């Protein structure tokens, strides 16, 4: 198996410039920063063609792995450290040489600080016991940054880390990385970046706790549905569908309601009719279709409504303006200590989406109109003041729906609780 390293034109160009810059190795030796033996070894590979360096590494890899990291640990100049990092990357990216990684890792037998401490050295930050944590902090900053080339490299690094199961929980524990990946998708990147970010979510979805919490924390399901619906490359759809399959298989209760609200079922049914180059994708699509269909058929209209509430993505589905629905179901919002009512009022308070606010305001008016205790309960949970605030919202539809709701709150008679 060959090593999969980061592929980035910006990085390739920067590496080429670094290879061409002279490094004052003799000066380091005269200053007693490196030994004469180290000087002799590094001069054999310095500014040499990569084919020549490869010949040397084939016969003396252990020596050079140790040399590179020792020099990286001792020398502080940025351009020198860059040169050494390029030499290390060149050694590890040689064709089908994945067996070289253990050789570099064995440098720890000569020095316990190697190989990781020189790579993570920082003058301003004390290195934690775990080497991975500061690296993930750097990746989080890059993934959330505005520099496109650096962000591209960082996403590929995250992808490589997630391919190792032992790293997944550590990545999951860094909210900045997940938030950064979400923001990338929200800005509708190109097919390759969409694929790489979705691939990260697919790898994460193999973890049980992630499958249970991913959509709840990051609202990723409707976003991935949008990505798949807009995809022009089959591989993007394939990895999104595979992610959804994992989420359904591992945590159906946590994910199926949001998938139904995001209208995944009709999209999956459409996917079933397409021709695919990769036949495996059809199995995943059919699995999703069957699971979603079974869940959909077992839902009552009220179940659909609570699924929509739970997802946080309210839209003008028929129930919101159906008097029959509210006559039958308004009182159910009071069950379990008014759990569903509190979710509705929380959306009214926390959402910034004008569509969600307009629909939620409409629902509050419907609830008050058809539930005798509604007015008092809405005020008890601080909903009345929020609806009144929305009468001055910048969106005209939100203002209108809030006005109608306030009329209901004011005009309905109080009922004893």
What's this entry about, in short?
The chain is mainly alpha-helical and 417 residues long.
Which features characterize this protein?
mainly alpha; 25 helices; elongated; 417 residues
Description:
By secondary structure, the protein is mostly helical. It has 25 helices and no strands. Mean pLDDT is 88; it is low at 122-129. It has helices spanning 9-20, 25-30, 36-45, 50-74, 78-92, 100-105, 116-120, 132-143, 148-162, 165-172, 175-186, 191-204, 208-218, 220-229, 234-250, 252-261, 264-272, 280-297, 301-311, 323-329, 335-350, 354-370, 374-380, 383-389, 396-411. It starts with 8 loop residues before the first helix and ends in a 6-residue tail after the last helix. The chain is elongated.
Q: What pattern of helices and strands is seen along the backbone? A: HHHHHHHHHHHHHHHHHHHHHHHHH
Shape: elongated
CA distance, first residue to last residue? 70 Å
Average per-residue pLDDT, rounded, comes to 88
Rg: 29 Å
Number of separate helices: 25
Largest sheet: none
Q: Which residues form runs of ≥5 with pLDDT under 50?
A: 122-129
User: What is the percentage of strand-forming residues?
Assistant: under 5%
